[in-house]
Amino acid sequence: AQSVTQLDSQVPVFEEAPVELRCNYSSSVSVYLFWYVQYPNQGLQLLLKYLSGSTLVKGINGFEAEFNKSQTSFHLRKPSVHISDTAEYFCAVRGQGGKLIFGQGTELSVKP
Amino acid sequence: GAVVSQHPSRVICKSGTSVKIECRSLDFQATTMFWYRQFPKQSLMLMATSNEGSKATYEQGVEKDKFLINHASLTLSTLTVTSAHPEDSSFYICSGKFVTSTDTQYFGPGTRLTVL
């Protein structure tokens, strides 16, 4: 069975500082991993995805993530955050039938 | 591209009534659509998977007679909450997947249901 654990429920950070949001996964089949962002009262927007190939994946809004098979991790990073990055971030793994299994979410709060 | 809309964005209804939520893929054909619910400050929980022209597959613990899902075309899926009760109040989000998708789901903006 597949599962996702997001290790931090809240991450406060100052504007222009770097940030890392941690995600660990468990999967017994081929691993497809995703990061989504959710702004208040909105749906989810895809930030980036790993399906195969290069383990460093670049996404939108300056985010990137690195797939680490040995550590079963897919941490999300951004070198310099903006106030507008304040949102909830979800890591997800593909499950059977193409459904997504989400982590608990990490609330990123960027302060001026 | 890959835009999914939901209607309505917010709905308030009385206990015992039924509510229909529409999910449309605006610029692509979604052979598969997914319905999620999200409680405040929590993650998304998959309710059901629907394939166009077929019966929906419900996740364990989700009452299929209470949450009726219809996926009549490649661009429209509907979720009907029948005999709604206050505990059904939640944020409902749908997503769609391309015919040839590499497993990427595109999400709608969500519908906030409040049952009084």
Helix content of chain A: under 10%
* Poorly predicted spans of chain A: none
Relative helix content of chain B: under 10%
Number of helices of chain B: 0
**If you average the pLDDT of chain B, what whole number results?**
91
Radius of gyration of chain A: 13 Å
Q: Specify the structural class of chain A.
A: mainly beta
Main beta sheet of chain B, described?
Answer: 7 strands, mixed
Strand content of chain B: over 45%
Q: Please tell me what the overall shape of chain A is.
A: globular
What can you see in these coordinates?
The complex is a heterodimer of chains A (112) and B (116). Chain A has 112 residues and is an all-beta fold. Chain A has strands at residues 3-6, 10-14, 19-21, 23-26, 33-38, 44-50, 56-58, 64-68, 73-78, 87-94, 100-102, 106-111. The relative contact order of chain A is 0.33. Chain A starts with a strand and ends with a strand. In chain A, a hairpin with a 4-residue loop joins β8 (64-68) and β9 (73-78). In chain A, the strands form 3 sheets. In chain A, strands 2, 5, 6, 10, 11 and 12 form a 6-stranded mixed β-sheet that branches. In chain A, strands 3-9-8-7 form a 4-stranded antiparallel β-sheet, with no helix packed on it. By secondary structure, chain B is an all-beta fold. In chain B, strands 2, 4, 5, 6, 9, 10 and 11 form a 7-stranded mixed β-sheet that branches. In chain B, strands 1-3-8-7 form a 4-stranded antiparallel β-sheet, with no helix packed on it. Chain B has strands spanning 4-7, 10-13, 19-25, 30-38, 44-51, 57-58, 67-73, 76-81, 90-98, 105-107, 111-115. Chain B is 0% helix and 55% strand. At the A-B interface, β6 and β11 of A face β5, β9 and β10 of B.
